[in-house]
Each structure stands twice: as structure tokens, then as C-alpha cells.
């Protein structure tokens, strides 16, 4: 009596899985890098990468504050008594316009410092430089507000004490919405995040394309469904 021959060849899915698993193991081994020990020189470089952009960005808040003080409008006030004054028009838009000028100048400062810092520092030093730029943007906005609030404030207080009642004068500058301080660091962070996100997406797309190109071709349904000569041989 004849016996059917046993199929001793390994299945095709198992053969295709072996090179794929080997490739994944090789990629995982290449991505694992030993951590470098934390040395004083590395700490010093990281600290400098944080402090240099922080200080450089914060200093720019000084001229930005004087620009805001020169461009922002001031509400017209009238001296009511010694040391006191009232706004002539309670519905004046001078306060809103002053806040708008602050937001505009802070946004321009955030864009300029973000672009320059990203090209010169972030691409070389990474996260510490990015953090320094963001913190420096917050410090620059605070300096800008402080300079604008104090610019001409002493002269305004002097006139309140010396001018007669009924005298008209322009009030000192003041930032009404403190939330405007976030625009400078927010624009800096946006300038840094957008190119990094685009670069990450492009890298991920290239990796997927490379993995799909190296993956072995799977058999088509026609090939798997084609009967072999052993399967169609009549039993005796």
C-alpha cells in the first residue's frame, strides 16, 4: 500500500518572518546607545546653552519697552485735585490700543528672537537652548512692561502734584491685560516647534518607506490557492 509523501518543506510565512525579525533586532541594536557619563564639562556646556539665549533674549526687551512707550497712545485725563486725576472719556480706546501695541511688539520680538535662536543655537545645542529662548522671551516681555509702565510715570505724578485742578494731561502708560506677557515666549516656542515637528514627520515617513522596501514580498492569493501535484494526485 502506497503512503502519501510527507511535506518536509517549511511554510513560506515562517521563512518570511525570519529575515524580518532579524532586521528588527539589528535596528533595535543600532538605536541603543550607551549613556555618556555626566561630567562637569557637560554640565557647564548645558548651563551655557541655557543662559546665553536667556540673557540675549531678555536684553531685547529693553528697546522693545521704549518702542512701546513711544508708540502706544495714552488716555487724556483731567486733574481733579492735588494728586488725583480722572479720565476725560471713560469709553476711550487708548487703553485697548496700548495693549494691542504691546502684543504686536511682543509678537514681532518673539518671531525674530525665535528664528535667530533656532538657526544659531537650537540646531546646535538642542533642548537647553530652546528652553533658554522661551524663558528669555518671558523675561523680555516682563522688562518691556516694566519700562513702558515707568516711562514718563514720574513726570505724570509730578504734574498731578503741581498743576491746578482742571488741567488736562495725558495719563501714564500701563498694561491692562497681563496675559499679553505670554505672546513673546509663545511665539518663540511656536517658531521652534514647527520646524522640529516637520523634520520629525519627514524622518518618520522615510523610515516607513525604508521598512516597506526591505520587507519581503508576500505571496499573492493566486499563488497560495494553486494546487500542487501531490494534493491533486489520486489516492490508491
Task: Describe the main β-sheet briefly.
Answer: 3 strands, antiparallel
How much helix is in the residues?
55-70%
Strand order of the main beta sheet, please? 2-1-3
- Compute the number of strand runs: 3
In terms of DSSP E residues, the strand content is: 5-15%
Task: Measure the end-to-end span.
Answer: 8 Å
Mean pLDDT: 80
Low-confidence stretches: 1-16
- Can you count the helices? 9
Kindly provide the radius of gyration, computed on alpha-carbon positions and rounded to a whole number of angstroms.
Answer: 35 Å
Principal-axis shape equals elongated
Secondary structure category: mainly alpha
What's the order of the H and E elements?
Answer: HHHEEHHHEHHH
Number of domains: 1
If you had to describe this structure to a student in words, what would you say it looks like?
There is one protein chain. The protein has 236 residues and is mainly α. It has one domain (43-210). Helix content is 67%, strand content 6%. The protein is built from nine helices and three strands. It has helices at 12-31, 40-59, 61-71, 94-125, 127-150, 153-162, 183-214, 221-225, 229-232, and strands at 76-81, 84-87, 168-170. Strands 2-1-3 form a three-stranded antiparallel beta sheet, with helices on one face. A hairpin with a 2-residue loop joins strand 1 (76-81) and strand 2. Helix 3 (61-71) runs antiparallel to helix 4 (94-125) and helix 5 packs antiparallel against helix 7 (183-214). The longest helix has 32 residues, at 94-125.
Amino acid at each position: 500500500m502506497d503512503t502519501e509523501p510527507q511535506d518536509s518543506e517549511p511554510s513560506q510565512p515562517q521563512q518570511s518572518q525570519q529575515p524580518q525579525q532579524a532586521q528588527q533586532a539589528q535596528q533595535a541594536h543600532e538605536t541603543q546607545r550607551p549613556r555618556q557619563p555626566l561630567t562637569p564639562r557637560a554640565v557647564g556646556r548645558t548651563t551655557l546653552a541655557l543662559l546665553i539665549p536667556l540673557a540675549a533674549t531678555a536684553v531685547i526687551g529693553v528697546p522693545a519697552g521704549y518702542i512701546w512707550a513711544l508708540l502706544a497712545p495714552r488716555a487724556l485725563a483731567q486733574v481733579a485735585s492735588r494728586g488725583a486725576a480722572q479720565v476725560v472719556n471713560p469709553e476711550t480706546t487708548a487703553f485697548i490700543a496700548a495693549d494691542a501695541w504691546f502684543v504686536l511688539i511682543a509678537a514681532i520680538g518673539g518671531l525674530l528672537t525665535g528664528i535667530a535662536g533656532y538657526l544659531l543655537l537650537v540646531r546646535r545645542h538642542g533642548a537647553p537652548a530652546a528652553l533658554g529662548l522661551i524663558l528669555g522671551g518671558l523675561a523680555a516681555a516682563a522688562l518691556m512692561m516694566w519700562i513702558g509702565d515707568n516711562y514718563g510715570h514720574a513726570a505724570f505724578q509730578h504734574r498731578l502734584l503741581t498743576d491746578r485742578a482742571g488741567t488736562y494731561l495725558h495719563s501714564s502708560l500701563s498694561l491692562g491685560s497681563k496675559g499679553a506677557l505670554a505672546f513673546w515666549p509663545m511665539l518663540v516656542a511656536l517658531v521652534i516647534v514647527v520646524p522640529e515637528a516637520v523634520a520629525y514627520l519627514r524622518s518618520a515617513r522615510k523610515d516607513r518607506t525604508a521598512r516597506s522596501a526591505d520587507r519581503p514580498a508576500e505571496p499573492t492569493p493566486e499563488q497560495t490557492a494553486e494546487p500542487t501535484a501531490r494534493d491533486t494526485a489520486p489516492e490508491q
